[in-house]
Amino acid sequence: MGGLTAMGLACGPTTSAPAVAAPAGRPDPFRLGVASGDPRPDGMVLWTRLSPRPLAEDGLGGMGSKPVEVRWQVASDARFRKVVRQGTATARPSGGFAVHVEPSGLEPGREYFYRFRAQGHLSPAGRTRTAPARGSLAPMTFAAASCSHYEHGYFTAYRRMAAQDPDLVLHLGDYLYEYAPGSYGGSNGIVRRHTAGKCQTLTDYRRRHAQYKSDPDLRAAHAAAPWAVIWDDHELEDNWAGSSPGSGVPGFTARKRAAMRAYYENMPLRASSRPSGTKMQLFRRLSWGSLASFHLLDTRQYRTDQPCDDWLRTGCDSRTNPSHRVLGGRQLKWLESGLRSSGARWDVLAQQIFFAQRDFALGPAVTVGMDAWDGYTAERDRVFDAVQRSGARNPVVLTGDVHTAFASDLLRDFDDPSSARVGVELVATSIASDGDGYRDRGVNAALLAENPHFAFVDQRRGYILGRLTPEALTADFHTLEHVSRRGAPARRAARFTVPDGARSLAR
């Protein structure tokens, strides 16, 4: 640390321009914004990536080939009059000119502000916070989001989410999409275009990340609060599972290595998540005092290939195969151990794929998706066993992936509506994927009728805003009427409450 003095410049958490005059002839390197993540009681990770030309064809944002010194500050006030931590880091071409800083020694349970300086430019300032100290039961607000396909719509939902001032944002995967321009259309067509080609190389993934971060609404959401991120499939390739690609395109190992490296470079992740080849330590745990433990799961990297060719199937016997895994043995043991030792009022499993049974067929036949937990029923039972053995007081599963909002009870036996309630599942719809969406076209009503454990279905775009207190979880589903045009307001479409100890939605 050291070398940077307090500048005392007015630069609030959503400022988009430097507070000092830019040097002549040198472009702003902070066009991808700033972010923070993975808060602990004494600190968090701070991120930026230098990129004056985000879509430069070499994937390095126009930064050239020389390392750049980046100065950083953390302050207890938005005007940076009380700088409490400061130092320098080096942005290197080998890391895509990204910077990950992990300040420590901060006070628990409080708000901070941070910013960077490089090449004579001052970054926008971000707002972040530390987690409360162990023992605290102070209420907290979290947001849950997923699935932001750039071509399908504008990211208005991110800005609406940021305006809610969450203490923590949980991103549940599909932060970006790997598809070539126009190859995956939404319900209202293509609104804006991806960079050229399907992502296959490190340069491709770096440019795609830069394109997404060029969106001002996404940058605003990152600057508003710390994030905890986990991937799903599209950060690499649709429906990948462990060592199995999701497509017949050759070179999966090289794509996997490139995608993991670009994901780390562009996310506010700690050094413990830095990838090594084709492995990346992404499952981890965040404690929020004694109120909540957030168990962030990785349902892609250790998974057995999907049974019956990935998609909706009726009568797929192999989906019950006990050797088929989603979490893998090590992650499952880690989860059970964490649940057992948590002691938190609320245990939140933040993960990617639909957990409850979702039967699409009316009548006695069961038609379910193979890329969800329905394709791995023995592994789902193992998770249920782990939850029940641990004695977790209030289990909650947070899910993304399906571009539809759901609220559901989790039944020990989904074929028996009177079965014991193990917990609840809250599914965040997409930020933009599949376009404007709809409230109901008969499909949603049919899903509710066929799946009595469901309490809510809505296929519009939006996010979840959750409020945790010692007494209850309140989950508000916010939706937007359209994303094919900018500026839609977010309205609360539904609210559900889970009282402490109920393990079931209050309907």
From TrEMBL:
Residue ranges annotated for the Phospholipase D N-terminal domain, each copy included: 32-130
Top-rank lineage group of the source organism: Bacteria
Residue intervals of the PhoD-like phosphatase metallophosphatase domain: 142-477
Gene3D superfamilies according to UniProt: PhoD-like phosphatase, Purple acid phosphatase-like, N-terminal
SUPFAM superfamilies according to UniProt: Metallo-dependent phosphatases
InterPro entries: Metallo-depent_PP-like, PhoD-like_MPP, PhoD-like_sf, PhoD_N, Phospholipid_Metab_Enz
Protein name per Swiss-Prot or TrEMBL: Alkaline phosphatase PhoD
